[in-house]
From TrEMBL:
Protein name in the entry: Glycerophosphodiester phosphodiesterase
Transmembrane segment boundaries: none
Alphabetical list of Gene3D superfamilies matching this protein: Phosphatidylinositol (PI) phosphodiesterase
Residue ranges of every copy of the GP-PDE domain listed in the record: 35-276
UniProt feature coiled coil, ranges: none
Lineage: superkingdom: Bacteria
Pfam families membership: GDPD
GO terms classed as biological process: lipid metabolic process
GO molecular-function terms, A-Z: phosphoric diester hydrolase activity
Length: 277
């Protein structure tokens, strides 16, 4: 069985953007090839998802890219959280869009996972960009963008402010289930590739769908239960790269690698790590 290449070639190069407040041990940025190993909400199987400790753990375990979700507070601040409510992953209740940034930041986003993570906060979008832009690539999901009119412009503004739209090809990928939102992002940030997320469905992804998606997107990102060599070839025929989500173990990731896809999103960046179980 062909093994997944967990470590891609590393070429030393100076980070293109000087990020204010960047927390990093070095200014040298790893320059990646295809995004092979992508930490789902950081290391969501080991730490509370979409938190700083989760992202740190993902990089510690060898992730090349960080996948995370972006939503908007009632006062227009961008925050990193998956659900449209804070109920599941914090000690609070309510819709993300109904809470202010100050209210969001007061919540405990760690104890639900394990008491040792008490006090973890929901990070802001800018916080994640500034902390990790010289350490990893980003797979950014616009979560339910129809709930937040204008969120595309705000995401674009943050990336432009930090000059991250000038980074190398595929260092940043923006994905969503919402094709209209992705088309808007592509107009705002033509240099940044976008990917269409696809949920599992029995009939798979049709040839005409790949062709239509390729008119505005560069990635086709299906649920891993849909990924096979035939689908990857179909996507490649239309110049689409493929990222599968979400592998729960190394065996699944390695099996997916045999299909020729470009990236695997996983909750367990290192499934042999048991230190947090």
């Amino acid at each position: 069985m062909k093994k997944l290449h967990w470590i891609t070639s590393i070429l030393g190069s100076i980070c293109n953007a000087r990020i204010p407040g960047q927390i990093t041990d070095t200014r040298i940025m790893r320059k990646y090839g295809p995004p092979t190993l992508i930490g789902h909400r950081g290391a969501a199987g080991l730490c509370p998802e979409n938190t700083i400790i989760s992202f740190d753990k993902a990089l510690e375990k060898g992730a090349h890219y960080l996948e995370f979700d972006v939503q908007e507070t009632s006062d227009g601040k961008l925050v990193v959280i998956h659900d449209v409510t804070v109920d599941r992953t914090t000690n609070g209740k309510g819709k993300v869009g109904s809470l202010s940034f100050e209210e969001i930041r007061k919540l405990d986003a760690g104890s639900w996972f394990h008491p040792r993570f008490k006090g973890e906060k929901i990070p802001s979008f800018s916080e994640v960009l500034e902390r990790y832009s010289c350490k990893a690539g980003f797979l950014i999901e616009l979560k339910k963008p129809s709930l937040y009119p204008g969120i595309e412009e705000k995401v674009a503004a943050e990336l432009i402010k930090l000059r991250l739209h000038q980074l190398g090809k595929d260092r940043i990928i923006i994905q969503s289930f919402d094709k209209a939102s992705l088309m808007k992002i592509k107009k705002l940030l033509p240099s940044i590739p976008v990917g269409v997320l696809v949920r599992h469905r029995p009939y798979g992804i049709l040839e005409r769908e790949c062709k239509a998606i390729s008119q505005f997107a560069q990635y086709l990102n299906p649920k891993v239960t849909m990924v096979n060599a035939s689908l990857v070839k179909k996507a490649q025929k239309h110049s689409l790269k493929v990222i599968g989500w979400t592998a729960q173990d190394r065996q699944t990731a390695e099996e997916l690698a045999n299909t020729g896809l470009d990236g695997v999103v996983t909750d367990f960046v290192d499934v042999h790590d048991s230190s947090l179980k």
